[in-house]
Design a protein that fits this description.
The chain is an alpha+beta fold. It is built from five helices and 24 strands. Strands 1, 2, 3, 4, 7, 8, 16, 20, 21, 22 and 23 form an eleven-stranded antiparallel β-sheet that branches. Strands 9, 10, 11, 12, 15, 17, 18, 19 and 24 form a nine-stranded antiparallel β-sheet that branches. Strand 2 and strand 3 form a beta hairpin. It is globular and about 100 Å long. The two termini are about 50 Å apart.
Length: about 400
């Protein structure tokens, strides 16, 4: 009986062992960076026309420089260097004039491996009279984000909040929240994107802006800017798991790569879903779609963004639109709120996988029937063998 009890104890604890193993595999080797946050680096005063945030993410032998700026259209610039001692230098008199390339440098310049920037350039609104969710000739005059009045950056550790409004806004605002991470993890609120120490997250939301039509829907225009290899194609990956973003089985990745190489240099990643409430439930989710990236004028991107003008001498740009809502979905006026989240990072995008809890449940769920079948088969064989050995036979005359 003691032996049997010992066997039962081992069998009962096996799911615990499985969970422990999966947990070790999933989080035992998490890469981390040291973050240094600086607002308006090297400037003794708050510059006119918008601020510049610099988050220096230092690894063992490389550095990621995240630069977030509200001079003109809000822009996030990511520069990857091959040394842990690279720095950012700003010529502030030239930077605020917004007509000098080279007024912001990452030094030593020879250490720069790759750079990519995302410009949040325009907010588009259209009157979806026929409820088709197809913006055609019903587009209203666009909101140029370079013309918005932007607030000062509000910092909380490696997180910065920027809100702005157009002159024509009677109420409401458009906000962007940047978060940079020391290590891998996942967002606390939907869509709960998986991030690494090589990525940042930007949340974008419209709150309380009065629509200009009864059936208004919105699009957000993004421009990706770089040197030789800007973000030029969008890949859509499918999954069978919606554990972290219920009902969403796709992820979109806007990536860049060297010619003839499969290695991804930088990316923008998002899930095709937006939310109509600040604290959403599943019913508040609304699908979103993207257009194909198309080449844009690098000079126009530099004219719209002070950060692009300052860093790039000859920028290359691609642009796309992200549209929110499908036919039959509620219009913006139903809640007057819309939020969307994306990642911007260096290297390959993070990929979702089953969590340790799901893997352990799968192992127990699939393993238990197999064990019962095996035990049952052994029991039947033993019983038959025992019956055969104890059978008596009548002699044949």
């Amino acid at each position: 009986m003691a032996a049997a009890a010992k066997k039962r104890s081992r069998g009962a604890s096996s799911p615990v062992y499985l969970l422990l193993v999966f947990s070790l595999f999933s989080g035992g080797h998490s890469f981390s960076r040291q973050l240094v946050v600086e607002l308006n680096p090297g400037s003794p005063f708050a510059p006119p026309g918008g601020e510049l945030l610099h988050v220096r993410a230092v690894g063992d032998n490389d550095t990621l420089h995240f630069l977030f700026c509200s001079q003109g259209a809000p822009t996030l610039l990511l520069v990857h260097t091959n040394t842990s001692s690279s720095t950012v230098k700003v010529n502030w008199s030239q930077f605020v004039s917004r007509n000098h390339s080279g007024s912001l440098k990452v030094e030593p310049e020879s250490s720069v491996l790759h750079s990519t920037a995302v410009v949040f350039s325009r907010l588009l609104e259209y009157d979806d009279v026929n409820d088709t969710a197809e913006p055609t000739s019903d587009l209203l005059p666009p909101y140029e984000l370079q013309d918005f009045s932007w607030s000062r950056l509000r910092l909380s550790g490696p997180t910065a909040l920027l809100c702005g409004a157009a002159a024509s806004f009677a109420n409401g605002s458009l906000c962007l929240q940047l978060s940079v991470f020391e290590s891998a993890g996942r967002g606390q609120s939907w869509p709960r994107l998986l991030h690494t120490a090589n990525s940042s997250q930007v949340g974008v939301w419209i709150d309380g802006v009065l629509p200009r039509a009864n059936r208004s829907r919105f699009l957000l225009e993004l421009q990706a800017v770089g040197r030789a290899y800007p973000l030029s194609r969008v890949e859509v990956h499918r999954s069978i798991d919606d554990e972290f973003t219920p009902s969403i089985f796709k992820v979109s990745q806007w990536v860049s790569a060297e010619n003839g190489s499969s290695d991804v240099l930088g990316f923008v990643q998002w899930k095709p879903v937006a939310y109509r409430q600040p604290a959403p439930t599943l019913e508040d989710a609304t699908p979103c779609r993207h257009s194909d990236p198309r080449p844009q004028s690098g000079e126009a991107a530099a004219a719209a963004s002070g950060l692009i003008r300052a860093f790039y001498a000859k920028p290359e740009a691609f642009g796309l639109n992200v549209s929110f809502g499908l036919a039959g979905e509620p219009f913006y006026d139903s809640t007057k709120f819309l939020s969307w989240t994306l990642l911007v990072g260096s290297g390959s995008p993070p990929m979702d996988s089953f969590s340790p809890l799901v893997l352990s449940m799968m192992a127990v769920g699939l393993g238990t029937p197999l064990i019962l079948l095996l035990v049952g088969g052994v029991y039947v064989c033993v019983r038959k063998r025992a019956a055969a050995s104890t059978a008596t036979y009548e002699p044949i005359n």
